[in-house]
Specification:
The structure is a homotrimer of 262-residue chains. In chain A, 50% of the residues lie in helices and 16% in strands. In chain A, helix 2 packs across helix 8 and helix 9 packs across helix 10. The longest helix of chain A is centred in the last third of the chain and has 23 residues. The radius of gyration of chain A is 17 Å and the shape is globular. At the A-B interface, helix 5 and helix 10 of A face helix 2, strand 2 and helix 10 of B.
Chain lengths: 262, 262, 262
């Protein structure tokens, strides 16, 4: 599937946080797509109009950029361009919650990708996000059940990343078991993944398969990177993940991505 | 002491500049704490409320974020959460000076960490910062004297980094001689250090020892990184510093940190 | 020529995008200059006043920062400090076009550096930028002709980067053939280059030779980096480019920079 991304080279417009934006751009480039970032309200409609996907990430949202997210999202909907939501920190603050609620009301998303805690906020208003990491016990709540419920309620592909990643859409579920827990020791793997999903969804007709393959690419890249540099430390791990994404092939996804479709 | 950070895994809220924010997040993760970034005035009180420390860095301040810094700082004070100030470029512009003056008036800080020039601005209104680097001759001005004076006047732990780092608090002084001058050839070592101090102070009761150990961790990481990659260049040095932070242990701090407490 | 940069160590004020700002700062440091970033309208005049060059990059412009760009540019003109423009995405949106038009009207630039598509917007109002990458066929339009026309019309050094880089000024043309196409697979090489040009122009009297040597430094760094890490991937390539810049010498520029002056 990554071969479709590499041959189409879609332009992916990201309105994303300034913490990991460079990694998002480099991850999008690494898999063969082309990144563009713009969060100015006077600019976003023009940029969306030349793009093949829109990736909205609320990690460092502010009042100005939230308006740009809404405007860009509506324009993307009007043009039939897929829109991805990464609701970073949903559940952690009122402003993040209100923003997620507003985005879900005003924009039709193709994919929502988050950790379990953030998806639980979307699912049921459950509070309890600790920062941007999930602090819910995955033993207590089934990611599969939550992903399915959100997918059905909103008509989106719902992807929850964690020990095992789960993707749900129209009765189908994919589980991705690649990836290593050390990926949590660097910032931005989730944000990069959302940019990668946007690139895949812009290149492949089936958003469920596109999302599952995007997750498997990231998981495989994480495994390969960790095998190569684990003795060095987390700075090298970050660099190596981009390295492995830049060499990722459909064969590697098949061998190392560990996708199971149920 | 880093073992306390790794076992507590404190959540550190940073309002910091967009130049080095990714390195700050990765440094905080590397030493075992958890980063969260938010600078929206409607968001910061909620985020501070779930955090264990607040790290304020004025590197790319603007009118909007200064209000968020003040609001977050006051909330942290109200909740008894330690607050760290990195007054980047104090002395270099009126707006930076006014912001530092206002922050010092409205927020009670636990630690102030800066270079000598910036601390001199706080100490005495001495002007003369060149950019974000110290251009004062450390032979003319004693960092120890300045650090002590600021510490006593404001009741804070005062940490000045330079050839030898100095930490002053309640009559005690620590000198840290680890670190290498090549660390100045990459951006962000100071900003990372302030994030690391916030993580230590959130995990250890004594803010003086916490700060001294944070500086020793960074110094030891710089030394080890430089020994490993000095032939390669400064891009690799940046990556290697994060690597070494991710492997840092109390034994390494003891062996390589070169802390002297007077 | 890089020896001039290393001995003068100019302070370079950048108002640049948040996607690649860290790479810009590290590239400026690597070649021996000193970076400072500030985009707050109340701050920029003071910061320009202590700087040796101003680097304006509109990659993630917004209404607030555009005002700061204009104010900083006018102050730099008043003080006789060189100003560099990187018109990222010119041609891709009305707001970017209006901003470029306004900057060109209100600020006198020393150097404009862009890809062919962006320079074509400046040249003739040709539309057609695809994101931030050139999608014009260099076979159809001669970068040399465009660079010369912009240089003559605006009295600036005009530098267009592409397969072969072209620099035009006062009837002279330089072509730089170093660099590798893989540099396009990482974000920020253009932005870093603009920061490097600012550093060279701040250190060397002749802005044409300064710009040509800046381009040759970046090209040589790209070649050397690619030779060293091509098996690893694009994450390592990004790190290695900064490495090679930090070791760059006039001898290496002569041997590997491939400058031809016509």
């Amino acid at each position: 599937m990554i071969s479709y991304v590499r041959s189409k080279c879609p332009l992916v417009h990201s309105i994303t946080n300034y913490v990991t934006v460079n990694d998002v751009a480099n991850a999008i480039l690494a898999i063969g797509a082309s990144p563009i970032m713009s969060d100015e309200i006077k600019d976003v409609e023009d940029i969306v109009s030349i793009s093949n996907a829109l990736n909205i990430n609320i990690g460092t949202l502010n009042e100005r950029t939230v308006e740009s997210m809404v405007k860009a999202g509506r324009k993307a909907n009007e043009l039939g361009i897929p829109v991805i939501l990464d609701p970073v920190g949903a559940g952690a603050s009122s402003f993040r919650n209100e923003t997620v609620d507003r985005l879900l009301k005003e924009v039709k998303f193709t994919v929502i990708r988050s950790n379990l805690s953030e998806m639980c906020y979307i699912d049921s208003g459950l509070k309890g996000t600790k920062g941007v990491d999930s602090n819910l016990d995955e033993n207590d709540i089934s990611p599969e059940v939550v992903a399915k419920r959100v997918s059905e309620a909103l008509g989106v592909v719902s992807a929850i990343t964690g020990k095992v990643d789960v993707v749900a859409y129209k009765g189908k579920v994919a589980k991705i078991r690649s990836g290593v827990s050390e990926m949590k020791r660097i910032t931005g793997t989730g944000c990069m993944l959302s940019g990668i999903i946007a690139s895949f969804v812009a290149s492949i007709d089936d958003p469920f398969l596109a999302t599952a393959n995007a997750l498997a690419s990231m998981g495989a890249a994480g495994c390969l990177a960790y095998e190569r540099v684990k003795e060095l430390g987390t700075g090298s791990l970050r660099v190596a993940i981009i390295d492995e994404l830049s060499k990722m092939s459909d064969d590697t996804i098949k061998e190392r991505g560990e996708i199971e479709i149920c």
